[in-house]
Amino acid sequence: MNVDVVIIGAGIAGSSIARWLSKYNISSVVLEKNNDIGLESTSTNHSLVCQGGDSLTFRPGTLHAEVNIKSIPLWPKLAEELNFPFKRIGGLWLIRDKADYLKYVKLRSRSFRSSSKPNSPYYIPEGSFKPLEFVDRKTLLDLEPYVNQEVLGALSDPNLAIVDSYKVAKSMAENAASNGIEFIFNQEIKKIERSGINYTIKTNDDEIRASYIINAAGINADRIAEMVGARDFSYVPLKGTLTDFDEDAGKIINHEVHYLPRMEDLPNLKTAVPTVNGLFRDGIYLEMSYRNNKEIKKEAVNHNIKAAKELFPNFPFEKHIEKTFTGFMAMTNPETGWHDFIIDIPNFIPNWVNIVLGPAGVTAAPMLGEKVGDLLRMSGLKLETNPRFDPTSKRGVGK
Fold this sequence. Notes:
Layout: E1 2-8, H1 12-21, E2 28-31, E3 48-49, H2 63-71, H3 75-82, E4 86-88, E5 91-95, H4 98-110, E6 133-136, H5 137-143, E7 153-157, E8 161-163, H6 165-178, E9 182-184, E10 189-195, E11 198-203, E12 207-215, H7 221-226, E13 235-245, H8 247-250, E14 256-259, E15 270-274, E16 280-288, H9 298-311, E17 321-332, E18 342-344, E19 352-356, H10 365-378
């Protein structure tokens, strides 16, 4: 098989890029090692659409901040076109003491900082966001009647939303497929050979030749890149464990609710969120582990129950566990704590794009194609508009 572009990985990153490419007259195929869309990191997270804690720093040149802040306003239209659940719930970041308050004052001062110049990395169209505001205890308890009564108030982010990230990825892949992108499943990459600016990918049962490769292999992006010497990045694969509590628990929460992590909490988080299907999702218990370790530890479940009880003390969460699950995320720059996305062409390896997202990666989905498209254009790929592109059509893919 000969194509213009191969995308490795059909998670939310690969599927969103595939949909964007389907707007153009190019031949492209997506290779996925599993039998369906988004079965790994895509479907094992909080499924939040938010700016993310790292984005609040707005460090100049940070892709994490730029891509997320540009993506958030695009979500309502994307959900309408592809008919997947999207619910604006808002976030409440609880204040326990003066130390929490002062940290939130700093974060609020950085939130949704925009530029009036349309070409600025942080350009935000007017009206895209509502400002973050502090709410007192009475207002907080009106919003979340069952939350811990001892907190002093909260910083409210009305822009935060929830999705089902698996359904998002599935919808984007089905739309891409209906517009001409081919998806091939159960494809394990065995070898990749480079000859100049062309590549040959050998899988367990196929051989595909392409001029451009997009490495969106998720937690295994480093191993794919190493096959052609394209790994110029590093990250730590962190295993995270989350717990879903049943619909009875889901009835007591209206917003995303969390505490700022303190030294004794790290690396674990105390975050609760209602899911789009009415459950209560809580965690996350984080640990370093082998990538094939899907074991659910008792201490991870206990942490999630304890975190839920600290946020909502009067509910018997231990009696309402629906399921507990694990997944992996890539944490770049772990030595400094300044995580950032990787969307880049490595030096000396032409026509190859590496994608590494990690925390808040779901949020970035709407803008990924545009960012990758800029890199492909710079590399010489001619993108002519596909006049038959339909933003709403779907064709089934995966299991």
